[in-house]
Every structure is written in structure tokens, then in C-alpha cells.
Amino acid sequence: MLPHQLNPVIEPQFEAVNNYIINHLHSGVPLVEKIGHYIVESGGKRIRPLLVLLAANAAGYKGEHHVQLAAVIEFIHTATLLHDDVVDNSELRRGNDTANAKWGNAPSVLVGDFLYSRAFQIMVEINKMEIMKVISNATTIIAEGEVMQLLNARNPDTTEASYMQVILGKTAMLFEAATETGAILADAEQEQQEALRLYGRHIGIAFQIIDDVMDYLSSAEEMGKNVGDDLAEGKATLPLIHAMREGSDEQRTLIRQAIRKGGLDDLQPIMEIVHATGSIDYARDIAYGEADKAIKALDVLPDSSFKQTMIQLADLAVKRSS
């Protein structure tokens, strides 16, 4: 079951978001439109825009601007994907060739810029300054998170605290912005707004940790990306950080060398070390703890089908296989 199918009331709203996104990809430059459609329609679950819809509904919103706001969040997310794939030299995304693999780096970066700009155009139409403040702050932090990740590349001394700071910036921040702005749109009380903000933050952290775990579990068909991509890029993600902490001197040395040089020459033995040291279970436990925090944050919201769906979504985020 796809996340948006958890709640039948959300289904038509979710479809309205999809239609709005497609209708707002138009451009007088054909290549912009072609790449925009390619990346937006390439099979993502659209969890972030779904969170906007759920948060707004859970906070009692009755208008229609949440559809526009959900599209804003998805455009920003898509822009970051285009930029990330160029930075990481990725060739596969959601089981398809990346835009940079098909059209090159320069068009991918520039279309990412176009999508960022389109997102801010739509925000102006929503005309709620507090939402613009949250999202402009979020995009700044996301950019900083990406730069931090770049600085940590091929650094085996990356700490768990540094790793968490990176994923808070590059991933969780947009989840947080999605739920917080949904609450702002609904003119929710401050306590509910803060609860929804924290829900987004914690589910975003959990989502990214599970993503990093799957890099040492899944096949390319399940993940929609190349297995071992993180190791190939020299990323010291949570499973590797824990394995270096808990492994033998020999295991630690092998992982450190692999992170420094990048590539996949040592992928198989490192996958074995990650499992042998309990690093998969450790990372999963951290993710489950974040999902529990997300669910706990919702206590202040009144009971509704939307709140229940958000609880289900937190569970789904840590139990997914792709």
C-alpha cells in the first residue's frame, strides 16, 4: 500500500497535488519542461507533500492552499535531488537513469534552479509570510547540510553527532518544514504547530537512517539505486560509524580505508562486518526511537483519521524495504 492510500479522504487531495505539479512544470524552454517532467514523474512516493496535506488536515484546515503548499515542498525536494545527483555523480535514481546521466550536469543543475524558483513563485501566491520564513530558512539549512556532507566525504573520523547533524539538515529539515507549514496554514495553536514541527523532524531523521541502512541490505531493484552508493562515495553513515566503533582493529582498518578511497572493492566484506557488529540493528533501533518520538509528539492533537494516518506513516517509514 502506498502512503497516500492509508487515508481515503487524502486520496483526492493527493491527486490534486499531482495534477497541480504537472500543470506548473510548464516553461518556454522545452528542455526545462522535459527534464522537470522526467524527474517529477519518476516514481517517488511523495511523502513530503503528503505530510503537508496530513498536517494541515490534522490541524483542522478547510481551505485549498494546502495543495499549492504540498507542490512547493515537492518542487524543492525535486530540485535538491537534481543537485544531489550531480554532486554525487549518481547514475540511478528510483530505478531510472538520473537526469544528469541522461542530459548532463549543467542542464540538471539549471533545471533544479528553475524548480526552486517555481516553488517560491507559488509561495508568493499563497501569500503567508510565516510560511515563506519557514521554507526560506529550511532551504538554507538544507544547503548547509549538503555542504557538511560534502566536507565529511571520505572522512572515517566522522562522528555520530556529526552524521546526525548532516541528516537533520539535508533530509529532516524539509520533512519538518512540510508539517510545520501545514500547521501554520491551518492557523493552528502554537502547541499544535510545535508538535507537528517535531513530528516532521523525527520522522525525517528516521527515514534517512533507514535509507542509509538499506544501502547495506537491499538489491538495486528494491532500492531504486545502486547498492553500496554511500560507500562508493566515501560516506560514513550510521552503520559504518557504529561498525568502526564496535569492530576489531582489523575490521575498523578495512572500513576506514574503504571510506578514504571510496569505490566498491570492499563492499562485500564491509557488508559482512556491518552485520557481524550489530550495526544494522543499532541503526534501526535509533530510527525506531525517532519514529516513536514523532508519534509521541502528536499527543496534543485531537483524534482524527489524519492523526492516525500520521502514526501509520511513522511506522511505515521505518519498516519500508525501498
TrEMBL record:
<comment type="similarity">
    <text>Belongs to the FPP/GGPP synthase family.</text>
</comment>
<keyword id="KW-0460">Magnesium</keyword>
<protein>
    <submittedName>
        <fullName>Octaprenyl diphosphate synthase</fullName>
        <ecNumber>2.5.1.90</ecNumber>
    </submittedName>
</protein>
<dbReference type="Pfam" id="PF00348">
    <property type="entry name" value="polyprenyl_synt"/>
</dbReference>
<keyword id="KW-0479">Metal-binding</keyword>
<dbReference type="GO" id="GO:0106350">
    <property type="term" value="F:all-trans-octaprenyl-diphosphate synthase activity"/>
</dbReference>
<keyword id="KW-0808">Transferase</keyword>
<dbReference type="InterPro" id="IPR008949">
    <property type="entry name" value="Isoprenoid_synthase_dom_sf"/>
</dbReference>
<dbReference type="InterPro" id="IPR033749">
    <property type="entry name" value="Polyprenyl_synt_CS"/>
</dbReference>
<dbReference type="InterPro" id="IPR000092">
    <property type="entry name" value="Polyprenyl_synt"/>
</dbReference>
